[in-house]
Please model this.
Amino acid sequence: MNTLDMRNTVDFFGMLTACALIKRLEAGESMLILVNDASFLPDLRRVHPECSFQLIPPAHDVKNGGDYLFQVRKA
Model:
């Protein structure tokens, strides 16, 4: 599963990058997105209502407590 690290990116460009990668997913495929801005997830949900989004515990290599890792699965 691919992980997209969107920490410390400009919101507009980060959203465009994430949307382009999500659009390339086939039905049933998923990817992980790592962000440090909690508002990123609701914005992405509005753009991709056909996907499910699940916040998951970050991996051990994620040091910053302000980071959020979520899985995007295309329906």
